[in-house]
Amino acid sequence: MARLILTFNNNILGTHMISPGQQITIGRHPNNPIVIDNLAVSAHHAAVRLDGQKLILTDLGSRNGTLVNNDRVTESHLAHQDWITIGKHILIVDLHETLSLEGTADQLMAHSPAPMDADQTMVIEQEETQPQWLGFDYLSFISGGREDYELSDQPVTIGKNREADIKITGFWSLLAGEPSLAITKKHEGYILEYKGGMLKPKINDETVTAPTKLNHEDTIKIGPIELQIRFVRRPTR
């Protein structure tokens, strides 16, 4: 299951669990599972559904829009610790039920410099409430049951070898290389290189053996592991 942590004015108002196959709506009307009673919020503002291991947010044609990490979206695949802003409320995504509520409250306090008036109906500009944002690339696991893996200047390897950053285990390890592939940062992008083994990597369902540049939202499959390269902006800690 996944969890949404509803917050306002640096305070945690509650947590809401989402089961696989379930969709919950967010809005001002009391028939929503997550009710935000503020005129800046539409009656049925947005919906979140858990489709397998993918948590998907959809804006329901709201008047003031829905933001994910400070970007307005109509639909977005959510990642662990993403911030959803609806009106002046923030919902924090906890895909793995691992976030500390105390730590979440501390993070909110650090990045909201002044309290907001709950009776106001105008949407406050994001730069006023979260002035410092950090952008980074990461690998989001679609299957394989693991937490997101942040990319950096260091190469990332996937294989059966003990030193691999992401290990292939079980039956699949008989077919995997040592390692099977590496993802290396080149200038401002990333290159996937096939290294060896019977498992051949796929990018967007196409098998590749030559060095190939990765783009944001590309999917990578190797044996039982399926992941996606993504870019996100989150509040600095």
Characterise the protein shown here.
The chain has helices spanning 101-111, 126-129, and strands at residues 2-8, 11-18, 23-27, 34-35, 46-51, 54-59, 66-68, 71-73, 75-78, 83-86, 89-94, 133-143, 149-150, 156-159, 166-167, 181-186, 189-194, 202-203, 206-207, 212-214, 219-222, 225-235. With 237 residues, the chain is mainly β. The strands form four sheets. A six-stranded antiparallel β-sheet has the order 2-1-11-10-7-8, with helices on one face. A six-stranded antiparallel β-sheet has the order 13-12-22-21-18-19, with no helix packed on it. Strand 12 and strand 13 form a beta hairpin. The radius of gyration is 20 Å and the shape is elongated. The two termini are 26 Å apart. The model is unreliable at 113-131 (pLDDT under 50).
